[in-house]
Amino acid sequence: MPSPERTLDVVVGGSVMRFERRSVAEKFARGVLGTRPQGADSLKLAVRVPAGAPAVTNPDGEVGLLLDDKLWVIGSAQLATLNSSKITPVSAEQWAAYQRLPDLALR
Asked: pTM score, two decimals?
């Protein structure tokens, strides 16, 4: 759904993920609403996903974005590229040390 900041909000488990790039938000949404529903502003903003957010990849090829110093596994280098995120390889130890955001399966 459109957000008040000219971005796109995706509701996940009663919380909002605010995406700067519509094309990235659409990969995680079941659908896109043309107008913001009444009551949407009462939902908690959990995380912002800015264009160009740093991305990391582990030795197994998993990819995640670093948002507020937390790792959000997105599983795809293509998604990181779509978000204009530079991907930096990290060791398995570094990958495991990141605090995690909930992983979302692509729909």
From this structure: 0.83
